[in-house]
Amino acid sequence: MATLIRELGALEALHEQFGFTYGELAKALNTSESTVHRWRAQQTEPTPVYMARLEALGAFLRELMSLFKDRNDASRWIREKMPALKGKSPQDLILAGHVDRVTGVLYAMNAGIPT
Fold first, then answer.
1. CB distance 43 to 4 below 8 Å
2. Residue 58 forms part of a structural domain
3. 3-state secondary structure of 82
4. Does 82 map to a domain?
5. Which residue, 17, 25, 58, 77, has fewest beta-carbon neighbours within 10 Å?
6. Bridge-partner residues for 82, per DSSP?
């Protein structure tokens, strides 16, 4: 349950601090917005598959905040098109369900590897 609460906190942060709508977050998780709201209200719990997807979003957010101390810089980075992502923005890939690819870029950046 503690992991679920932490990952739902990441979901809330992506919504409140970075402007993702719950519909967009549902799309990134490959579920419905109503399901996301049921998780938030603790009416249901995600299955292991969805829990893994929530954990991936949480890992992305933790890595993002490790690299960018300023939320405005992080927010700009999320929306910036970049060659490392084949001309797409991190937000584009997250919404397409590829948060792990974006997190990989952040891992590389945090390790000092040029992207």
1. no
2. yes
3. strand
4. yes
5. 17
6. 88
pLDDT at residue 2 in the model:
64
Q: Which domain, by its residues, includes 79? A: 2-110
Determine, yes or no, domain membership for 106: yes
Could you tell me the pTM of the whole model?
Answer: 0.89
Tens of pLDDT, residue by residue over 40-98, are 998 999 999 999 999 999 999 999 999 998 999 999 999 999 998 999 999 999 999 99
pLDDT at 4: 74
Question: 115 lies in a domain?
Answer: no
Count of domains observed in the chain: 1
Nearest alpha-carbon partner for 36 in 48, 54, 19 = 54
What 3-state DSSP class applies to 88? strand
Opening angle at CA 34, ends 46 and 45, nearest 5: 15
CB-based contact 106:63 (threshold 8 Å): yes
**Per-residue pLDDT at 13:** 92
Give residue 38's Cα distance to chain centre. Answer: 19
